[in-house]
Amino acid sequence: MSKEDLIKMARRAVIEGDEELAVEMANKVIAEGINPVEIINEALSPAMTEVGDGFANEEISLPGVLVAADAMTKAIELLEPHIPVQEIAKKLGTVVIGTIEGDIHDIGKRIVATMLRVYGFEVHDLGRDVPIDVFVEKVRELKPDIVGTSSLMTTTMAGQKMLEEKLRKAGLRDNIKTMIGGAATTQEWANKIGCDCYAEDANDTVLKAKELIK
Ligand code: B12
């Protein structure tokens, strides 16, 4: 099967929320030796964004979003171990990442964590709905170069501000860089809360993370 056919299949799996098709597609991508990053960037991520837009326009129902998210998650789970890791002599840096307290959206954050790993960062993914204090504890414990938080909802963005404040209070802020992302966030929000960097997608995250640790 050609890469173009697999891209169409991956898109269809997410848009139709077809988990079986997602598994079939992922196995074919692995068997054909295609770099999964291309499928994630060219098919899975844009398809999920399309589902999101459909939901916003009331063309797709919440159950429709749920099945799309399941198909996407399954495909990434299967593809992730087959992503070729960059050959680098030395790890670039350590990143602690998670979705902020109160927010269970984790598809984008997982993609970001995967890409950072692929490009040579050591990534500690704390998961989703992560209490602010847990981020602070992990910074104290792991002394990462970067802390990244994802927020998809206007109601959870405030947690990113709180994290900046708590890191400052704990005397930990000066030694690290902070990054934010997720659909609710913007560069303006990063500036407003004193966060070092906003990134739009996984590729942008890798580029900016490399800049931050220079
Ligand atoms: C999928 C989805 C779900 C799934 C989540 C499944 C999962 N495991 O993640 C389900 C169905 C469970 C869900 C539930 C809910 N959802 Co929802 N969901 C979405 C949807 C449609 C797509 C999100 C997504 O996965 N996009 C695809 C990925 C690839 O993109 P991404 O997340 O933006 O990530 C990219 C970048 O943002 C960036 N990035 C992401 N994280 C990070 C982190 C860092 C550090 C950096 C640097 C970059 C970065 O890189 C990523 C990769 O390119 C969005 C719509 C939208 N437009 O975003 C609504 C949306 C986020 N959901 C919404 C809502 C309201 C909810 C619910 C409250 C619904 C309900 N009534 O129950 C619940 C949330 C409960 C909770 N407490 O969190 C609203 C939020 C509105 C708002 N502004 O506050 C949205 C915007 C839909 C809408 N238009 O109303 N949802």
Commentary on this structure:
The protein has 214 residues and is an alpha/beta fold. It folds into 2 domains: 3-82, Orthogonal Bundle (Methyltransferase, Methionine Synthase (B12-binding Domains), Chain A, domain 1), CATH 1.10.1240.10; 93-212, 3-Layer(aba) Sandwich (Rossmann fold). It contains 9 helices and 5 strands, in the order ααααβαβαβαβαβα. It has helices spanning 3-15, 19-32, 36-56, 62-79, 107-118, 132-142, 158-169, 187-193, 202-212; strands spanning 93-99, 121-125, 146-150, 177-181, 197-198. Strands 2-1-3-4-5 form a 5-stranded parallel beta sheet, with helices on both faces. Strand 4, helix 8 and strand 5 form a beta-alpha-beta unit. Helix 2 runs parallel beside helix 4 (62-79), helix 3 (36-56) runs antiparallel to helix 4 and helix 6 (132-142) packs across helix 7. The N and C termini lie far apart (42 Å). Bound molecules: cobalamin.
Secondary structure: helix percent: 55-70%
Element-level helix/strand string: HHHHEHEHEHEHEH
The small-molecule ligands in this entry are:
cobalamin
Low-confidence stretches: none
Text of the CATH class of the largest domain: Alpha Beta
By CATH, the topology of the largest domain is: Rossmann fold
Helical segment tally? 9
Spatial strand arrangement across the major sheet:
2-1-3-4-5
Please report the distance between the alpha carbons of the first and last residues. 42 Å
Main traits of this protein?
214 residues; alpha/beta; Methyltransferase, Methionine Synthase (B12-binding Domains), Chain A, domain 1; Rossmann fold; 2 domains; 9 helices; 56% helix; globular; binds cobalamin
